[in-house]
Amino acid sequence: MLTAIVNNYLLMNFTTRLLKPHTVMTMITYGLLPVLKKAINDNTGKHKLFYICDVNKNTLEMIQRIQTIFLFLSGVAIILMAFFPIANFTDAATTGSTTTYLIFDVFKVSNEAGPDPFPYWFNLPLIIVTAAIAILSLVTIFLYKNRPLQMKLTQTGIFLNIILIVGILFFYVERIEKQTGTMANYEYLGIYLPLISLVFLVLALRFIKKDEKIVRSFDRLR
Length: 222
Description:
Layout: H1 2-18, H2 21-30, H3 32-41, H4 48-53, H5 57-60, H6 65-79, E1 87-90, H7 92-95, E2 100-104, E3 109-111, H8 124-140, H9 147-180, E4 183-185, H10 193-221
Antiparallel strand pairs: 1-2, 1-4, 2-3
């Protein structure tokens, strides 16, 4: 009788700490709710807490849906940079005209009135960093079996995204304006896509860390 009371107390205390919004979603993702139901309905006299922690290994290794969505959206946002200009440049700074003079995108700076003002390799660092972020975001999705590595790659993606944003605003835009005597106008979606990608990576990292913390707590109790 005393053993049953202690077991029920442990079960109630353990589930009370677990049943938080994100934890419930993680439990559903990992398939832990059926295990919890089994523990509650078990009448064999065995320690109920043991059944809660006895999680199937293959179930734990399934793709974490929240992180996957954020990582995928981050990759999509960066890939879309190939299809939208980052900024256009007008000669309004010198003549007061609003006629578009240059178009700046990931691949090049195009001059609508004549030859391009910069060589092809001018945008090469921008292309490399953008491609690296896209590849990291999408590859990291499939590393759900190795959450520590998944976190490191996500952090690397965040770092590269910050470099991308700073490089665009404080190197490329300033260099183009100074060398061509034009003024930048941010009328296109391309300028916002790195920031959108950065937000999704930060959210992905947050939920990966939460899941890693939950899984470690299960391992300690097992």
